[in-house]
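Notebook p. 47: complex prediction with histidyl-adenosine monophosphate.
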Amino acid sequence: MANIQSLRGMNDILNEDSKYFTYFIENASRIAKNYGFSYIETPILEETALFKRSVGESSDIVNKEMYQFIDKGENDVCLRPEGTAGVVRSFVENKFDRAGGTYRWFYYGPMFRYERPQKGRLRQFHQFGCEVFGQASVYEDANIIMMLKDILDFFGIKFKLQLNSLGCPTCMPVYRENLIKHLTSFKEELCEDCNRRIETNPIRVLDCKNENCQKLLYNAPKITNNLCENCDTDFEKLKEILDFNGIDYVIDTNLVRGLDYYSQTAFEFTSDEIGAQSAIAGGGRYDKLVEFLGGRETPGIGFAIGIERLLELIKIKEQDEEIIYLGAMDEKALNQLTKIANKKRETTKTIMEYTPRGFSKHFKIAEKHGANIVALVGENELNDNTIYIKNIKTQEEKTIKVEDF
Ligand code: HAM
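Predicted complex, structure tokens below:
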């Protein structure tokens, strides 16, 4: 009898992966808590209607990718394909919309999409997500983007940030009409999917991956040129805040996201180191979603990180880079360390901490820098002309002569 194996596109998390997985969750949660977020957990199984109403009937997720079935009680249920819908359902069910105020929640866990598995694309994958309710200020949009950047920076991940505004119920319908008019003039030349999308959800035509469609779209009207005054002011303000904080981004007017609930700010963080499935995280504003799901009108914004894709990047970085952290446990050792840092920097990234500190405090700071070698000099070492070294990966530690380091 053949052994039973895990289902296609569904992986165990063990060994190295589990180490990185918990390392990621711990640190991403810590950063989210520092930004005022608290943990929420919602069920993995929800009523199918929840995703149809929020993610949208015309989206690929609802159309093709849901793990949907009728349970023993004849309920139409679905394994969650994403986290936002369940969090919003809980927000409304627990009457936070009636209470008013601002709520910031984070979550992580498995999501399910019946997609064709390939590198970076799984059927069961994990997200780390954050959702904010009750904040219409564009400063919250900037805050969310900066927090996501902080998380990626902590893990030393290089990324590109793509930004767009999808307008609101005032300007989006007008833009949609303009777009349909434009697309209809060369409808026959567009791919089959796009022809369907013109009927169901024309803005999805903009992110078609077909090269021919992309060429044809070159002169298509741009949403950012069709925003109402309010959306335009918010988008300009958001760019200004990001500029002020030195955050690089590119405006991508074809970034429409694959879920229907967004309005105004939409963004994606991508990496060119992990192949075709390059989106590490995505999110945006969804000011109408609480209302769609039966609650009182409440602004919302959030994002989700694809954990598997992020771990891939952490692993690539770990393999590639050695980082030495140099610390003094005594003021007198600092001069000695400047000399060592100078020598090590000829070949290796070396970070020197200027404040003398205790042994374990140095390790905490070294972790923040992603250092894999921690090298410390205290009074004893200084007198013996030695240096204490610990390799974080192998956990090996030794004290050697300075000239041998
Ligand atoms: P999403 O863009 O569909 O957004 O997914 C977020 C991230 O999940 C993606 O950027 C990607 O890294 C990862 N991901 C998606 N599908 C797969 C897959 N099949 N295999 C591996 N990783 C995958 C959402 O889900 C929204 N709920 C985000 C959000 C939160 N918007 C507002 N709040």
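Notes: DSSP finds 15 helices and 16 strands in the chain. Residues 82-84, 113, 115, 121-122, 125, 127, 129, 131, 258-259, 279-284, 302-304, 306, 308-309 surround histidyl-adenosine monophosphate (CB under 6 Å).
Next step: compare against the earlier run before touching the bench.
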